[in-house]
Queue: 2 jobs
Job 1
Amino acid sequence: MLRSGDRSVRADRVTWNRNSGEILANGRVRFVDENGNQLFSDSVTLTDDFEAGAMENLLLALRQGGRLAAETGSRAADGTVELERAAYTACAVTMVRDDEFFLRIWLDYYGGHLGLENCYVINHGRGDAVAKLAKGANIIGLPGDPHKNFDAKRWRLLNGIMTGLRGYYGHVIVGDVDELVVVDPASGKTLLEFLERRRTNRVFTPLGLEVVQRLDLEDLPITDKVLGPRAHVRLAPHYSKPCVISTATKIARGGHYTQYDQLNAPDNLYLFHLKFCDFAAYQQAMDRRNAVTAEVGVESVAEASIGRHWFAEARGEDRAVFEAFADLDMQEGFDMGPLRRKMHRSWRARGETGYWEFDRPAYQTQYLLPERFVGLI
């Protein structure tokens, strides 16, 4: 490490030109300026008094929060950094209507990992409670009039917002308010660190797991964290959604498919679906959704572009739904590698739709989450 006052540089290799006073740092470079901002780069050129010049493939971590990635950059003598092809690492987008239970969890998770300033909440119906909870995030208020094509309109909007945000962020996470993209703590990386090290111009598909409440084993209410009071997940291929977007593509209604023709399903990347994580919250959410479809005035799923699970006819008996989780076959360990390989083997075009898919069998299995996940959500 080399140091000059409050500035320091660490790299795999550092050379100094005695005649010109130029310092060249190469390989895993970490430069800290006098304000505490950090520059991570493949290479940095410095003057002999540690004024940074040209940089390549860099990440700028600001002391006050926020991170920027860029292909090239330069730092002027006054500390101004000029970047080429730069973007903030990631943001998250969701749309919600009167669903404070899941929104609180969503904001706590993504706000903690990405920063509230990089969270976008579409407030359908302009609910006061949603606006209050999401204070500090970016809130887009929309009229809440019922419509039989609600889901089609919703995903048309989400596609447009995702496309716009890609101009400012390396990765855009798009999903429902009860869905969270999670990195296995065994990787040693946070969500932000994971995405910083991933190439853009692609789509990532996390493996879908549903967090379920085992009524026979888990009777504590969720008042803060989810994982801890809840420790069981069931395999949910339907929720292995291509939801981390960094390329030009279109997401299908429901978010289950895109028109990107390659499958990137990294190890250690999961999508946790929380719909069944709490019995009381489930009942309240289903009551609200049933009320929406009733207000629209359609009698069956076939008459509307709304998810089947929003209709009373598809609901079933709530307690029986939750009690059935105890009957799922408990699996040993937590090895999801074979499941990702099955996704790759069945990867194919979804007919003539332009979308791509993999097999989504209805597994009747459950897992006990390893202790390392406790408190993550």
Job 2
Amino acid sequence: MANSKSNRLVGYARVSTQDQDTALQIQALNAAGVTEIFEEKASGANFDRPALWDCLSSLKSGDQFIFYKLDRVARSLSDLLKILECVERAGATVRSLTEPIDTTTAVGRLMLQILGAMAEFERSLIRERCMKRWQEVFTVESLYRSIRLRLRRSSTCIPRACIR
């Protein structure tokens, strides 16, 4: 009886904006022997990514789903777990080119989940820092506007002859 396993190396590359380039990821995937690459320019915060879902739905038993870095695939642990479920349902495995991830072992699956949780934590910290900066900018700008307004109001009370 013939072996029904596929053994394809299926890659996924993503950048967040149209201005960014996937060339580095594509080059690394090609160097790893990936023959089929799904490429996308979409925010990782958006879980509705057509190329990712096309890639995942193309996986067959024995295939390996390969990506450059974990944050190119999932931004949150819940998204990562959904993606892993799709890969496992297909009978495929996962491999990252930049992180020591091998889902054929229990330790590899654990490491993948830990890295996913850390990526989500890092994203939350970045969001918090950005929000804090915006609050500081807003506070400084509000103060600046208030001072300018007060100066304008006070300058209308000063006779023009005194202002030079």
